[in-house]
């Protein structure tokens, strides 16, 4: 049973009722960001509004029964570009066209590498410090994109790196440094978000990679190496989880496919403490790949409750699916969450704020019934 926040302490496992981290931006915040873009308010005024809305959000998370709280990614436009552009040598820019999401197109934004990648400071350290200052007796959870997202999404100016290994080494070092900096400010729960794995989950995705002259099997190993080396120096009491996503933009998706083709790597080759996995519909496949979980200290967070639509899943159906997953992983190694965040970008998914909180409360209630 999920304990009240005052009694809960963070162990090397996610909470039984957990969440991916992003929340719908309130209308006041959306308007303030538009006003900042047009110059009608100052950066300081926007920051004040962000602080106030994040403070409200943290209280709502605790009221809903969550033991870990995030800032909802309220200060970000994108879940990944904003963070990655905070490294030395990486910048945010406007592209010619947006990303295609099942018929829906995103804003035309991207990141590019213009110099050697490094960490001298990162503006999101201040974001975490504020979250930690208002979290109270809840655990302040911070979400960052995987290093794989820079490899897969950035464009590179010529002549910066002589080879891929040199780039890889700089990127991993930058991640090790920023993770340590977050830890030094009190972070004990870090979530790494990664959509690059989706390219390996379907035959279509693999064929697309091959058409670009890339070897999917080699890329799988490189992706695992990027994760493992980035977190290799983390302190023993820092919980690190990873969320694997198939895309989440305005309630649409980017790809489909089960975990089978990369299950041995995901479940047996990653040094994370927990995995947040999408299992909210048939696009994610069956639980059978979970048979490759070979560590008693690896926790699997079942994303059975969709964040894309407001209708609540039937409680008994959810409990039956959790029971089905126990055929492959013991119940005490399982947890429950929505399959993704509610707003991977500032636009958000197609549901109301009240439906969002109903979903969160649904996670908590089901978890209390199952793990009691």
UniProtKB/TrEMBL annotation:
This is Methionine synthase II (Cobalamin-independent). It comes from the Bacteria. InterPro entries: Met_Synth_C/arc, UROD/MetE-like_sf. The lineage of its organism: Bacteria, Bacillati, Bacillota, Bacilli, Bacillales. Residues 19-347 form the Cobalamin-independent methionine synthase MetE C-terminal/archaeal domain. PANTHER family: METHIONINE SYNTHASE. It comes from Sporosarcina psychrophila. Pfam families: Meth_synt_2.
């Amino acid at each position: 049973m999920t304990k009240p926040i005052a009694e809960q302490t963070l162990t090397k496992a996610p909470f039984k009722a957990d969440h991916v981290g992003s929340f719908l931006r309130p209308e006041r915040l959306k308007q303030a960001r538009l006003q900042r873009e047009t110059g009608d308010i100052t950066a300081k005024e926007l920051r004040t509004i962000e602080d106030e809305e994040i403070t409200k959000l943290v209280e709502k998370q605790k009221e809903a029964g969550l033991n870990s709280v995030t800032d909802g990614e309220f200060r970000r436009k994108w879940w990944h570009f904003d963070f990655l552009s905070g490294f030395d040598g990486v910048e945010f820019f406007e592209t010619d066209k947006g990303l295609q999401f099942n018929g829906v197109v995103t804003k035309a934004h991207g990141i590019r590498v213009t110099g050697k990648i490094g960490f001298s400071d990162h503006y999101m350290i201040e974001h975490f410090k504020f979250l930690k200052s208002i979290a109270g007796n809840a655990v302040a959870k911070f979400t960052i994109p995987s290093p794989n997202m820079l490899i897969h999404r950035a464009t590179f100016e010529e002549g910066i790196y002589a080879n891929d290994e040199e780039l890889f080494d700089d990127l991993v070092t930058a991640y090790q440094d920023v993770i340590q900096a977050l830890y030094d400010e009190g972070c004990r729960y870090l979530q790494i978000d990664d959509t690059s794995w989706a390219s390996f989950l379907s035959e279509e995705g693999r064929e697309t990679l091959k058409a670009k002259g890339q070897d999917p099997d080699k890329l799988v190993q490189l992706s695992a190496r990027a994760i493992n080396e980035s977190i290799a120096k983390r302190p023993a009491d820092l919980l690190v989880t990873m969320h694997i996503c198939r895309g989440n933009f305005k309630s649409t998706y980017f790809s489909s496919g089960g975990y089978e083709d990369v299950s041995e790597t995901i479940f047996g080759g990653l040094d994370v403490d927990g995995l947040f996995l999408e299992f909210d519909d048939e696009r994610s496949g069956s639980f059978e790949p979970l048979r490759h979980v070979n560590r008693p200290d690896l926790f699997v967070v079942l994303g059975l409750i969709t964040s894309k639509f407001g209708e609540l899943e039937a409680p008994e159906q959810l409990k039956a699916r959790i029971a089905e997953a126990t055929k492959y992983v013991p119940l005490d190694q399982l947890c429950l969450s929505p399959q993704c965040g509610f707003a991977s970008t500032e636009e958000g998914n197609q549901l109301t704020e009240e439906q969002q909180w109903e979903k969160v409360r649904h996670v908590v209630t089901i978890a209390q019934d199952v793990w009691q």
